[in-house]
Write a structure and sequence with these properties.
alpha+beta, binds alpha-D-galactopyranose, 42 strands, 697 residues, 12 helices
Length: 697
């Protein structure tokens, strides 16, 4: 899937690349990772069932905590019982402290938190990174009061903060959210930090080192249309999720009455497949048995809570039939087959499509019917309109990485030895506990992906002869404060194919590349540089392999090829039509300033579409522009990347711009990335066309 190794990148999902590449020059500074929430949070929040209604009070919250225990939700893994907006009075007290609403919470918040803790559960609260919270009956926000509010919550025993974005006075989001993150950390109490910035500034680019989850979209409502369009917007962001840091497509509506049971099963299945927070939004005291049955499906919850912490990604999407595949820690995949249309349809995906081709046989478990079969790994189901079938597909033997570019941190380990703590995925090695490292950082350059190890370390991956090459940066993590010295070596089967020489904590990142053609196994070895292993926190930063072959020699309209990933802020990426916002195939004939095109891709900023080229292509030519469908609005820019390097840029284009023609040299590239930015003014009406793009291989 994603490639790229310089800076914080992860090239699925809108505009990531463009933003990420600018981060490389910050001074060395450790990130704010708090080492909690290694799998997505599970719990309850009152908002979707009560808003600020009178029924939101102490009795309700206590009743929810009781229901967690009595109705099997605690046993199923739900942990947090959380308050949303309107728990406080509209004014602070004379000391400047927030005051619980005495009508709703006559015994105060601490007593309520104690009650929840008494049930073996955790307690969460809400505020906004602005001068007021969101509801008209809301209360003063945390902006400018971060330390004071964080200290107050910690003194009450708060375990979780949802921090909203209303009345933010237009101040920089990252700064506002970091300030509260710092304040929470300074309390010394572990507090899960749930950022609720609605996806407005592309928080996936900055939030992983600041909070434990970040909302990616506006608010969900209890309708199929709302739920599925939020799922679509969240699907393209798969590459940003990791243990301790998850995309949040908002809380669950399951049980609130606006969708059918089939639609609620889709909602729950997709949220688990996307490693989303599972925050129940219905009043559990009165929930129907059918609602509880959905919310406590242990197999589906196990997918959400899988320790690998990966978000599933879309591996095929045709005419509203969407297949997602989520890597799991044991080498299996969780698979969803979703029918966004209205009529029963059969959806099928092969083991190859799921990314686990190459085993002799597979066990396939239906996670709703619980039926298990053995076969060649093809999954198929007749799925009702708005329905989702969900499976766990387990290969009988280790399989090679799928065709494309794969981060090593997304693959199961063949073996993993490390002198201190475990080998960490997408964070440095903090010595002791799983997840105690920081965002990978070498002399101030941060990396979204990679492996954090500690000498002596030896990590092996099964490649099964499928891969061409490995590319990685290496260095000692900033966590070692300039200390440490190691040697990085890469072995192709028994033979050494790359050697960094001595790398110290003062050296900048070094790039290593290795030819892996034909290799059964690759091993990544770190040893101390002859001076003992003290401070040897070492990073394989952005380490990725390119596997399988690219397109055969020829000339291809891009819409005739399968992409490796495709993300948009609105609706799916469309082939041979413009993007009409929400539904699959709701666009029109691609039209730029009066010129129509039969072929192309219709996207909607922020967008990134990735194709695997496997080193076999030479160039891309395309027209670009804002589609006529945007009705005179919209402003975007089009950028083409050869792996991590930008090779073409349209500059800013508006609805009145004539089509521009771009050409890009792609010789030797593993991947082609097509990025559309929002032109710096938000994503409103940014319907953008890659018109008649032709790839030569
Ligand atoms: C915003 C948030 C919601 C909810 C309300 C409360 O809209 O996105 O999730 O917290 O505020 O007023």
């Amino acid at each position: 899937m994603a490639s790229a190794l310089t800076a914080v990148t992860l090239l699925t999902g809108g505009g990531a690349l463009a933003v990420g590449l600018q981060l490389a020059t910050a001074p060395p500074a450790l990130a704010l990772d708090n080492g909690i929430n290694l799998t997505p949070q599970m719990g309850f929040n009152n908002w979707n069932s009560t808003l600020c209604g009178d029924q939101f009070d102490e009795a309700m919250i206590k009743g929810i905590a009781d229901a967690f225990v009595d109705k099997g939700l605690k046993a199923a893994g739900y942990q947090y019982v959380n308050l949303d907006d309107c728990w406080a009075l509209p004014e602070r007290n004379a000391a400047g402290d927030l005051v619980p609403d005495p009508v709703r919470f006559p015994h105060g918040i601490k007593a309520l938190a104690d009650y929840v803790h008494g049930k073996g559960l955790k307690f969460g609260i809400y505020s906004s990174a602005g001068d007021h919270t969101c509801d008209v009956r809301g209360f003063p926000g945390g902006l400018g009061h971060e330390q004071q509010d964080a200290r107050l919550w910690a003194s009450w025993g708060v375990d979780y903060l949802k921090y909203d974005n209303c009345h933010n006075q237009g101040l920089d989001a990252k700064t506002r959210y970091r300030t509260m993150g710092d304040a929470l950390k300074a309390t010394g109490r572990p507090i899960l930090y749930s950022i609720c910035e609605w996806g407005s500034t592309g928080p996936w680019n900055w939030a992983p080192s600041v909070g434990n989850s970040w909302r990616t979209t506006g608010d969900i409502s209890d309708t199929w249309q709302s739920m599925i369009s939020i799922a679509q917007a969240n699907q393209g962001l798969a590459g940003y999720a990791k243990p301790g840091a998850f995309n949040d497509p908002d809380m669950l509506e399951v049980g609130n009455g606006g969708m059918t049971a089939t639609e609620y099963r889709t909602h729950f299945s997709l949220w688990a497949e996307m490693a989303a927070p599972l925050m129940i939004g219905t009043d559990l005291r009165t929930a129907a048995p059918e609602t509880l049955e959905i919310l406590t499906n242990a197999d589906v919850i196990a997918v959400d809570q899988d320790p690998l912490g990966r978000q599933g990604s879309v591996v095929s999407s045709e005419q509203g039939l969407v297949v997602m595949s989520k890597p799991l820690a044991d080498g299996a995949r969780a698979v969803t087959l979703t029918n966004e249309g209205s009529y029963d349809t059969t959806i099928t995906a092969t083991a190859q499509t799921l990314g686990i081709g190459g085993a002799d046989s597979y066990t396939v478990k239906d996670l709703w019917s619980k039926k298990t079969t053995t076969g060649n790994g093809t999954v198929s189901a007749t799925v009702p309109g708005h329905g989702t079938a969900m499976f766990r597909v387990t290969p009988s033997s280790p399989v090679p990485p799928p065709t494309g570019v794969t981060q090593l941190s997304d693959l199961p380990f063949g073996s993993a030895a490390n002198q201190w703590g475990p080998v960490e995925r997408d964070r440095s090695n903090g010595d002791h506990q799983p997840g105690d490292g920081q965002t990978i950082s070498i002399r101030g350059t941060t990396y979204a992906k990679g492996l954090g190890v500690h000498a002596a370390s030896d990590v092996a991956f099964h490649l099964g002869g499928a891969c061409r090459s490995l590319v990685t940066d290496v260095g000692i993590d900033d966590e070692a404060y300039g200390n440490g010295s190691v040697v990085f070596r890469i072995y192709k089967d028994g033979a050494k194919v790359a050697d960094s020489g001595t790398v110290t904590g003062k050296d900048p990142a070094k790039r290593l590349t290795a030819d892996l053609t034909g290799a059964t196994t690759v091993r990544l070895v770190v040893t101390d540089a002859g001076d003992g292993t003290r401070y040897d926190h070492a990073d394989w930063a952005g380490a990725h392999v390119a596997c399988g072959s690219g397109p055969a020699t020829g000339t291809y309209p891009l819409s005739s090829l399968a992409w490796s990933s495709a993300g948009n802020s609105w609706g799916p990426v469309e082939k041979d039509m413009s993007n009409g916002d929400n539904q699959a195939r709701d666009g029109r004939t691609i039209t730029i300033a009066g010129t129509t095109y039969a072929k192309g891709l219709g996207v909607n900023a922020l967008s990134e579409v990735v194709y695997y080229l496997g080193g076999s292509c030479t160039s891309l030519t395309t027209d670009v522009g804002v589609d006529a469908e945007a009705n005179g609005r919209g402003s975007v820019s089009f950028e083409i990347y050869k792996d991590a390097t930008k090779v073409a840029d349209s500059g800013l284009m508006t609805a009145s711009s004539a089509a521009r023609h771009l050409t890009a040299d792609l010789t030797g590239a593993d991947e082609l990335h097509l990025v559309v930015t929002d032109g710096g003014d938000g994503t409103n009406s940014d319907h953008a066309d890659w018109a008649n793009p032709v790839l030569t291989c």
